Amino acid sequence: MRVRVLGGGGREQAIAWACRRAGHDVSLSPDLGDLTGEDIELVIPGPEAVLAAGAADECARRGIPCFGPTAEVARLESSKSYARQLASSLGVPGPAFAQFDDADTALAWWRDVGTPVVVKLDGLHAGKGVAVPATDDETVEAINAAAATGGTFVLEERLRGPECSLLALCDGRTAVALPLSQDHKRIGEGDTGPNTGGMGAYSPAPIPYSPAELLATFVQPILDDLRAKGTPYVGVLYAGLMVTADGPRLIEYNVRFGDPETQAVLPLLESDLAEVALSCTRGELDPGAIQVSDAAAVTVVAASPGYPAAPVTGSPVIDRAEPGGTALRFDAGIDADGNTAGGRVLAVTGLGADLAEARSAAYARMDLVDFDGMQVRRDIGWRAPGARLGSYAAAGVDIDEGNRAVEQMRAAVEATHDNGVLHGLGNFGGVFSATAITSLDDPVLVASTDGVGTKVELAARLGTVRGVGMDIVNHCIDDVLVQSARPLFFLDYIAAGKLDADLIAEVVTGMAEACRVSGCALLGGETAEMPGVYRDGAFDIAGTLVGVTERGELLPRPDIAAGDALVALGSSGPHTNGYSLLRKVFDWIPMDVVPEGCDRPLGEMLLEPHRSYLDVLTPALDSGNVKALAHITGGGLPENLPRVLPDGLGARVELGSWPIPPLFRLVRELTPRMPTDELYRTLNMGVGMVVVCAPGHVESLQSSFGEPSWVIGEVVTGSAVDLC
Question: What is the average pLDDT across 235-251?
Fold first, then answer.
């Protein structure tokens, strides 16, 4: 078949590649020129501008089949207000919105709505006519800038969640979805900075909805409506979606293949693209005839310096790649002399059996390309690892199996106990009577031993290890504190495949600092070199802390009752739990990135030391009004609250009663398949310690803390923790 592709960017190069792969004769041109039906058997428009200008209408007049909608139908993309109004009238789920042509009215609407908004110019702007302001000042600036263009613009309620690109092949009546993909619009890692035409994409995107569900909700209503009006939709209908906590919502419609999604999706299409497109122009699309590979593709874009605001071009493009390989190169902005000539210069698409393999192939290929000031995002696909996880066990840690192990060992451990052991296995720390400590009336020793877990891998990788020394001490202090004990001394254990004196000194310095602040002696411990057990550069730490309290002050108290209040103190971060999950979720994003909504680099947030609650809780414990303390560690609120409650009592925790820190909000967004109970069983979600007290003592205790605290629920009859 003789095929003409309109346009010359990376998307059009990918369309041409897909047609040539099936043996067709393909030419690229910015317009139709003087072609007739005798010259060309199929036209596939690329850019939205040529469709809005009437390319399909002109093809119809010349008798050339065109895989694209008419100019009237192309208003779905060329007019944001038209698309929103049509979608809303058909019941397609989307955000609240309104159209404006002046700043004052728009500002009044935004303030009345009271939520963050997105500002969209009502026209074609090559994917860059959208502002996503982060602050009130930025919102005012974006609205004023939109109004200053002199045209209409749209304000939309800002939605939150991962985005998804649904590309549907349409013949006017029937639609078939290509593999779902995910674009990366922002210029910077962690989805930060201004919007671009797209810095990369991957497919298939792990969205918890099937393509059939999404077609039925977002594409078929449009096809049915336009066909009923006598203007059937032929071509690619691209629905840009956002998967929110309330389900998928429409961001926008495009009337053509996406860029750079096309570069990621078409290599997965095993069917003949030109034949499929031609069948659509005839209204004869056969869904069963479309075959898609079960492989994966990742596309990475290289952009000129200054892009997207003011690209600087004219730099020679150097490519050291040898012919062949599993990666494809699609040029977008390169002139005949091999110099950069546009904002987005080129894209490479890596292919593989899964996304990880495809991603490695893409970045390996991009490493062979160079030009002055080249901008490449290092985190394409970064949302994918977390989106696949439905449980902590999927990250390699099974809490249930750990609990089963505790029960299996309980009998053997308790056989070693005598009357001096008051609290043993399953509590936060072992408790042993120590009447030899004569300064107290009836002293009891409380011991805790623990480790830092897989957080040490991240600390070793980033070369920031002092904090994990603080982690192990403070974790143990909090574990004995929940039984009202104050720390006496601490012993440490450090193991590594190959000892590094500087690293060990840095870790122990962190331990010493935490001990000094808490009035605890660091007595020493054990350092072990274990080649073959730990890989080079890796290490592990553990420790044991001994504290003391009066027997009569031991917590939890036996008078805990239904109706008692649960008062939460904030965590300083994930503390020392959930890092097997967190490391998977953030595996594909650099640790020096500051994600949207956060105020510091991701690595700093993840390595924030586990805080000690000793100073905060000492006045409360001295008041005698604390009935129990629950340290929220592995197992989260659902597993740790029951450990301090008597038989027959459970807890009701009201979600939303405390502010969720930005890091945990980001994890929630990146793990849409993970049930709420599972997430709160894996991470502390911003609550590091819970105080149980009578309702009448809440106010005085909160006053004694000297920091924010929140009443998050109450003790109830039962045995479980209900997150509601």
Answer: 95
